[in-house]
């Protein structure tokens, strides 16, 4: 079996359709969510608040006024992510309940993808103090990403038997990192050579944001063509009403019977904590590098390129470790490495590129693997007929939509005026997540959910 080829038990056409949606949304996750938009929106907000862009030596201390509240320009992007995730907590479970009742899941997934891609493409217009437009587009993009991933993750169960889920999930994540690496390389060329191309750096960044939206939208046609629809399975019956009303009925029934699946819930709580830490580290890394450590945009993009390159192999490597040691143990080992990473991040010296690159490489090793294996492990614990609904709860803390981590990071920065204590505060999320995950009895949870036991957990 090749490094990226489909396992024998998985339909090759659907394997490629599934894997290439990770490739598609990587444009938004990497370029917008991780590298460019948070520091760019911060600069636009600082220009509006202070009439200039803040620097490490001379930061902008004037707050924006939003609904009568003073908001630091440096915390704006993180508060937007927080609000989007809080809204997602109400919205995504309904999306999941609807998806479990639809025969055309892929249309729902791609519809959200194309809407989010449009929002990302419109980020090209965020300039000249239009920070409010940027905040709105970031909100829409994050909400649509989370909604599409609810449906996408549930499709993993449809196309993959239990023993192959770690492999398929890990390889899909690897495809995402490869796609993100390619698009970031192109963006790095544009941003670095903006003078030679006759562009300002701001224009080069905005064109890169546009490319991320186009990438997401265009490549989403591949899963739309290759994935096939399936009829709903074991859907909880409700008395009457339209699809939305039935979906709320299914959601209410699931919440009512959550105590039937205590292991599933414990895993979900553990994931919520440690994934908040992971997602916050990802989303704040570029802002931390620019505003705290004093690196230029080109250095940040080059570092994320390194992360993407290493993460491609890291995701595949974690998949191999899971085949030998099981997904639960492998995830726990990854969380220990994450704790070391945030401590090293606190100690990083300013404008010293080698330590910064070393930390980026370490992030790459554990980034994709912990997330890919978490997805496949959780899929084993979901009762039939509620796949998308349970993944909607899972997605509330997924890629770029964590809320508690970004809230803590933003508050610590606003209180202390420094990003260093904010980054080290994230270590608590990994500690709590590791302790809770160590208490999850996977075999018992799979049995409670009525699913087939894989060889290793």
UniProtKB/TrEMBL annotation:
The chain crosses the membrane at residues 76-95, 107-126, 132-152, 172-193, 205-225, 260-278, 298-318, 330-348, 418-437. It holds the Pfam family ATG22. It is a multi-pass membrane protein. Residues 263-457 form the Major facilitator superfamily (MFS) profile domain. GO terms for cellular component: plasma membrane. Keywords: Membrane, Transmembrane, Transmembrane helix, Transport. InterPro entries: Atg22-like, ATG22/LtaA_families, MFS_dom, MFS_trans_sf. This is UMF1 family MFS transporter. The lineage of its organism: Bacteria, Bacillati, Actinomycetota, Actinomycetes, Propionibacteriales.
